[in-house]
Amino acid sequence: MPTLQLHTNVTVAPERRAELLARLSAAVAELLGKPESYVMVLLDDGRALSFGGSAEPAALLELLSLGLPESETPGYTRTLCALCETLLGVPERRVYIDFRSPPRHLFGWNGGTFQDPRRD
């Protein structure tokens, strides 16, 4: 159920979207040690977005995952910021990342929640 949302003022060319999503999906699966078949990536590009009073390339990432290990977020930040710079040209200093780890009963999928005993 790991979910990465990428909001950016950079517009991604349609022919580059699939590759960008695939790279981010693989990175999230590897970082979290979870099967990529559960990873969702959402791209919200070309947005009106200002960072530090400037409309230069910037991004906000939201990474949501059950059991997200807080001790690992510095490493996740390094990796995700580097990917934003490589894939989008967004300097690492212009990326914010919001990490979230919801309780199992507050994340639903397939007609139930992850607290449902049928999911274990």
Automatic annotation (TrEMBL):
One GO location term (cellular component): extracellular space
Principal location listed in the UniProt entry: secreted
Alphabetically ordered keywords of this record: Cytokine, Isomerase, Secreted
First-level EC class: isomerase
Record-level Gene Ontology MF annotations: cytokine activity; dopachrome isomerase activity; phenylpyruvate tautomerase activity
Entry EC number(s): 5.3.2.1, 5.3.3.12
Stored InterPro entries: Macrophage_inhib_fac (IPR001398), Tautomerase/MIF_sf (IPR014347)
Annotated catalysed reactions: L-dopachrome = 5,6-dihydroxyindole-2-carboxylate; 3-phenylpyruvate = enol-phenylpyruvate
Lineage of the species this protein comes from: Bacteria, Pseudomonadati, Pseudomonadota, Gammaproteobacteria, Chromatiales
Species, as recorded: Marichromatium purpuratum 984
Protein name per the record: L-dopachrome isomerase
Signal peptide annotation: none
Cellular compartment(s): Secreted
